[in-house]
Amino acid sequence: KAGVTQTPRYLIKTRGQQVTLSCSPISGHRSVSWYQQTPGQGLQFLFEYFSETQRNKGNFPGRFSGRQFSNSRSEMNVSTLELGDSALYLCASSLLLAGGEQYFGPGTRLTVT
Amino acid sequence: SQELEQSPQSLIVQEGKNLTINCTSSKTLYGLYWYKQKYGEGLIFLMMLQKGGEEKSHEKITAKLDEKKQQSSLHITASQPSHAGIYLCRSQGGSEKLVFGKGTKLTVNP
Fold this sequence. Notes:
heterodimer, A: 4-stranded antiparallel beta sheet, 11 strands, B: mainly beta, 5-stranded antiparallel beta sheet
């Protein structure tokens, strides 16, 4: 069974630009969660999608958005990038909503200059 | 909202030594997950604890959940360089948002 895949693995953007990250969950998993990881704040929950609907949301500004497609693949978008958005973005898939055993992708390392 | 505090923040041990990492919750702990992360990579699921007093082991890693103390501990016996990484605890989720501890960085010197 293929694991969770994330593309791209590395990304360099300039302040003010926008970026879209992609996540393909494990086959059969309908929940995809996104996290931001930084040295200072640790791993912070962004949002969770289940069956194409956002079900849970963390405390991030509206510049961070996401969506999920009918095949459970998910994308997250960050608009008007700021230097502080530089981080490792991880997605995780699971069978169940809001918890349960999550399987993580390798992450996308975003650097904003 | 729930917070998970991990201690210590970092740990350096000699190969073969035992060690313990703690995760303490600010609220009642109904369940807890432990993950391991190699630097800059995704998280690998280690164990899930769902009931107070529950104890699980996998190879040389044992985790316990103490409901009364609102705490979970992760114990590694006879540490090896392959145990090095960042260990993170995660809340059960459900009605509370998913929360991770900030992690414990483990270095094992050969």
